[in-house]
């Protein structure tokens, strides 16, 4: 393999070559940096590239490798969504309000990756504060889908997805509040894993919706997702919502057959409105699962029609509270002198936040205000419990649930950026698992008119290993990950 194309490797592939000293972390890092230099002007996945720091980290990793150290991500270059704090580096959340913000410390996930010897190449683009499904809400311009540059990569982790799909790095970190890892994975032919709520520390992640935010990997393969999760998962004193359960050796537990496994086919996700091409791909996955000995059982998640409405009340409510801190005093853009406090807020927040962020702050403030709180926020919380109960009842019948990830392949840039409702409906299949805190993974499931599309597997809380095992079995059969965007 030529040194120039090392960036196309999977983590697992690179691991073998690094451990047998056939390549160095420096070679690998240089190949990624070269690729970024060559193609990122077309895709615009990166908001920041830290070349010299990455090369230095690679040299350090090579020293550790030379000393015989082993580790799943030692010497592996990656990119992180720019909503994760990275000490000493600009961290913008793709917002003007944080244009000059330098993070004073590392997020726990970044710290864990550093300790594991992974190499941070830079930061990726996103919808401002992760509000969106196309990366068009970035204050720094949209990212393009490597499979078709006239289309969106999905969002909000669109920069991370486009980066992995065009081999700028071996993996990327995304965040998923209501689909933001899974949906871009579906649009870019990648594996996107949203771990159970609390499985990965959110310390140092700028809060969007604290009750659903989760950090997870975007990778080329399922085995790679397992390797990343192994490193980033776990309890953290700095995030009280993290789960105490010990972290499994996911990458060693991936093998296993599917005989006797019961897989749910929720009828509310497979309505007559579902795109015929997507249905066909879901049916072929279903056939494969049956061939492998799994049983497919039709189930009902009756409150599914309420997931998007509930999500779009709870999410803006939490956002309106979480984003209050960007007031120009503690954090955020500060234009200095103003006549009074109202004008001070207006000039900083008015100019610092983009239209979608403002829309959500207003929606959330409204839903939480006296007189409307009971009718909107409290009602949404009650229905959220019904949605959680639906999943709990389903998991008494089945081990996992299979659904599409997205209602269609990647749409055109600009096509629906002015239609918030259309954009919110992109999340129709992904918000249920978010509201319920369940692990869910998007796996490449095929192509429609040369555009990739994913399937989603949802499992009970902390069943990451089962979700990944089934995805790994399907991946071995379909091998879609081997198909690459032509750039
Ligand atoms: N599309 C969802 C939203 O706009 C996803 C956000 C996310 O997961 N960060 O809220």
Description:
- The chain has 487 residues and is an alpha/beta fold.
- It has a domain at 3-256 and 465-478: Amidase signature (AS) enzymes (Alpha-Beta Complex).
- Helices cover 39% and strands 13% of the residues.
- It is built from 15 helices and eleven strands.
- It is globular and about 65 Å long.
- The chain starts with 10 loop residues before the first helix and ends in a 9-residue tail after the last helix.
- The mean pLDDT is 97.
- The protein binds glutamine (GLN).
- Residues 130-133, 156, 175-180, 208, 315, 427 line the site of glutamine (GLN).
The chain-level mean pLDDT equals 97
> Could you say what the CATH topology of the domain at 3-256 and 465-478 is called?
Amidase signature (AS) enzymes
Number of beta-strand segments: 11
CATH superfamily of the domain at 3-256 and 465-478: Amidase signature (AS) domain
Overall structural class, as computed from helix and strand content, comes to: alpha/beta
Count up the helices.
15
What would a concise description of this structure say?
The chain has 487 residues and is α/β, with parallel strands linked by helices. 39% of the residues lie in helices and 13% in strands.
Question: Which features does this protein show?
Answer:
Amidase signature (AS) enzymes, 39% helix, 11 strands, 487 residues, binds glutamine, alpha/beta, 11-stranded mixed sheet, globular
């Amino acid at each position: 393999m030529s040194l120039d194309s090392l960036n196309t490797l999977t983590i697992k592939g690179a691991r073998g070559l690094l451990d047998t000293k056939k390549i160095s972390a420096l070679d690998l890092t240089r190949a990624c940096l070269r690729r970024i230099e060559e193609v990122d002007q077309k895709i615009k996945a990166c908001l920041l590239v830290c070349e010299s720091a990455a090369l230095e980290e690679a040299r350090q990793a090579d020293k550790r490798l030379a000393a015989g150290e082993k580790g799943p991500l030692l010497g592996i270059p990656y990119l992180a969504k720019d909503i994760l704090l990275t000490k000493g580096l600009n961290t913008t959340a793709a917002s003007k309000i944080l244009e000059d913000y330098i993070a004073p410390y590392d997020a726990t996930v970044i710290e864990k990756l550093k300790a594991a010897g992974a190499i941070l190449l830079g930061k990726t683009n996103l919808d401002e504060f992760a509000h969106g499904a196309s990366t068009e809400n970035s204050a720094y311009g949209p990212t393009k889908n490597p499979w078709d540059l006239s289309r969106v990569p999905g969002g909000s982790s669109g920069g991370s997805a486009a980066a992995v799909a065009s081999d700028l790095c071996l993996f990327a970190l995304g965040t998923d509040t209501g689909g933001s890892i899974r949906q871009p994975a579906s649009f870019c032919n990648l594996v996107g894993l949203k771990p159970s709520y609390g499985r990965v520390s959110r310390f140092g992640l700028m809060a969007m919706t604290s009750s659903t935010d989760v950090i997870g990997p975007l990778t080329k393969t399922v085995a790679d997702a397992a390797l990343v999760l192994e490193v980033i998962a776990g309890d953290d004193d700095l995030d009280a919502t993290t789960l105490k359960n010990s972290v499994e050796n996911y990458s060693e537990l991936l093998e296993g057959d599917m005989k006797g496994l019961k897989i749910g086919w929720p009828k509310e996700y497979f309505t007559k409105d579902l795109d015929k091409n997507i249905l066909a791909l879901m049916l072929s996955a279903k056939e494969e699962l049956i061939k492998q000995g799994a049983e497919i059982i039709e189930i009902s998640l009756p409150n599914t029609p309420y997931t998007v409405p509930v999500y779009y009340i709870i999410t803006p409510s939490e956002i309106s509270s979480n984003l209050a801190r960007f007031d120009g005093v503690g954090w955020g853009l500060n234009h200095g002198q103003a006549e009074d406090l109202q004008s001070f807020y207006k000039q900083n927040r008015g100019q610092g936040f983009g239209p979608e962020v403002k829309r959500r702050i207003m929606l959330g403030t409204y839903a939480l205000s006296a007189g409307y709180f009971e009718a909107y926020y409290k009602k949404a919380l009650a229905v959220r419990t019904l949605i959680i109960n639906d999943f709990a009842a389903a998991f008494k019948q089945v081990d996992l649930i299979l659904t599409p990830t997205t209602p269609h392949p990647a749409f055109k840039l600009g096509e629906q950026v002015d239609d918030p409702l259309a954009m919110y409906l992109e999340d129709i299949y992904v918000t249920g698992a978010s509201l319920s805190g369940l692990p869910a993974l998007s796996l490449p499931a095929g192509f429609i008119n040369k555009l990739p599309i994913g399937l989603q597997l949802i499992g009970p809380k902390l069943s990451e290993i089962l979700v990944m095992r089934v995805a790994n079995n399907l991946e071995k059969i379909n091998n879609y990950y081997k198909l690459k965007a032509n750039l």
